[in-house]
Amino acid sequence: MGNGTPSCLTVKNLTKSYILSNKTPITALNNVSFTLNEGEILGVIGRSGGGKTTLIRILRGVEPFDAGEFDLHDLHVAPKPSNEIIRKLKRVTAIHLQRSFALWADSVLINVVRRLNALETGDETADLPDELFSEYAEMKEKAIELLRAVDLEEKVDHTADTLSGGEKQRLQLVRQLAIAPNLELLLLDEPLTMSGPRTKVESLKFIKKIQQQHNLSVLVASHYPKLLLNIGIDRLIWLDEGEIKAIGNPQEIIDQFLATREELIPFKEREDQGTIIKVNNLTREYYTPDLSLTFRMENLNFEVQKGEILGIIGPSGVGKTVFLQLLAGIDLPKEGEVLYFLDGEQGVNIVHLGLDSVLARRQTAYVRQELDLTYNAIVRDLAAGVLGIKGEPAIAAAKKRAKELGIKERIVDFVHRLGDLPDSEVNEKLEKLGLDRQVIHDLFPIPPWSAISEIVTPIFEQVGLSREILERKSQEISGGEKVRIALALSLLSGPKVLILDEVGGDIDPLTLRSIRNLLVGVNNQFNTSIICASHNIDFIKELSHRVMYLKEGKIIKIGDPQEVCNLFLEESKGI
Question: Which residue in 62, 139, 295, 515 has a CA-CA distance of 20 to 30 Å to 272?
Answer without folding.
Answer: 515
